[in-house]
DNA sequence: CCGTGAGTGTCACTCGGTGACACACACGCT
DNA sequence: AGCGTGTGTGTCACCGAGTGACACTCACGG
């Protein structure tokens, strides 16, 4: 190897091209729509061949989702680090509250989110991503809570937590990004835990 | 028109071919996997051309999902028919309990469900379907509950209900179809409504 | 017997995605 | 200097899901 200060030259240029390509792709999708923009359009606009596009992204969708660092691993880790004997729902709430910044920074911004929302293929992809994460988190939660937590209840718990996150996200989008996401998440959890004194979900 | 007893001859034969084709497709998918089975394989096995397959189903996926009658419309109707002033969560629980037979008879059976579970493309499609239904139901719920129910809470409610249904379904699949789905759904709702006396989710 | 229309096969095409090959360029080595 | 070698690239050929267009063939009613 040669002059690889920090992260290596090749890796750096590759990342730069990827980012530029992703940016370009999203811009074109927003202008002309996802379906009406072909991979060849993007490649041509970037001055490369279709084949080269696929050397940067395994699929057209991936140009939108870009990196999507695996925040699920981090959340799972945080769950395992929780005090033993803590009730699973409290554990989930606490971790999601703690990690919400990390979760969101790993997700697309408002304008990209709108694009995804409006495009069936991208929505499907987002769902798949979230499903994968939920599975990891469910496993971590069961590991944390021992034999007292059956698979059924664990599914229900993570499913409910996902609903809270999603409702908060949707409300945030409705407000054009103006709403306080942390406060929304708190509100969602409060509604789901009527014991806390609120009027709850009922 | 000619001899159209009941539903019309053409319509009947069309339905019959569709059903046969769908059956054949699912069988092939289970044998050789969804991705490794081409539309041409299915068409050939059914003695028709690829083009004709697409005259019966708009896409390969649709051969699996078949009819999927719109049960969401029915559920929305049931929500609107509920007594005025009923709290939204109670309304949701009651309607989903009442309609669960209808909901399930409109959904694929165990073996098809497993196929879907194992195939990313089909999972995505199922999610999309469920999303569409959830939107209809959310709208109906807001209509039923008047101005007291904001969009955020409505999203949270239907999202949570969806989590209950999904958890019940997953447990049912885990039990190879042996579990009592109605009882599972009741358990899920009970866990989500700790006020009822159970230990709840916390 | 003749029209009409629905169902079909065939062909050509688009678009996402993959494999194979050849070329160019930058590096490290002797 | 010349030589490999690895990495990025373009090109070409291909597959599979869909779509559009056109021609054919039956079964039907007139």
Automatic annotation (TrEMBL), chains A, B:
DNA-binding region coordinates: 38-57
Every HTH tetR-type domain range: 15-75
Keywords: DNA-binding, Transcription, Transcription regulation
Entries under Pfam families matching the protein: TetR_C_14, TetR_N
Source organism superkingdom: Bacteria
Keyword Lyase: no
Transcription recorded as keyword: yes
PANTHER family, alphabetized: HTH-TYPE TRANSCRIPTIONAL REGULATOR RUTR (PTHR30055), MYCOFACTOCIN BIOSYNTHESIS TRANSCRIPTIONAL REGULATOR MFTR-RELATED (PTHR30055:SF238)
Annotated protein name in UniProt: HTH tetR-type domain-containing protein
């Amino acid at each position: 190897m040669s002059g690889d200060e920090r992260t290596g030259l090749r890796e750096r240029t590759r990342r730069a091209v990827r980012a530029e390509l992703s940016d370009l792709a999203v811009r074109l999708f927003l202008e002309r729509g996802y379906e009406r923009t072909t991979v060849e359009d993007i490649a041509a606009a970037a001055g490369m061949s279709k084949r080269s596009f696929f050397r940067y992204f395994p699929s057209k969708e991936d140009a939108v989702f870009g990196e999507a660092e695996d925040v699920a691993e981090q959340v799972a880790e945080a769950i395992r680090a929780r005090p033993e004997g803590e009730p699973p729902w409290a554990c989930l709430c606490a971790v999601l509250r703690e990690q919400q910044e990390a979760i969101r920074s790993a997700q697309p911004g408002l304008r990209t989110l709108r694009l995804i929302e409006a495009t069936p293929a991208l929505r499907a992809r987002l769902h798949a991503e979230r499903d994968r994460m939920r599975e990891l988190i469910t496993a971590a939660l069961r590991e944390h809570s021992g034999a007292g937590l059956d698979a059924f209840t664990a599914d229900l718990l993570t499913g409910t937590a996902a609903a809270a996150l999603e409702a908060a996200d949707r409300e945030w989008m409705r407000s054009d990004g103006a709403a306080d996401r942390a406060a929304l998440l708190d509100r969602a959890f409060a509604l789901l835990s009527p014991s806390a004194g609120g009027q709850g979900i009922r």
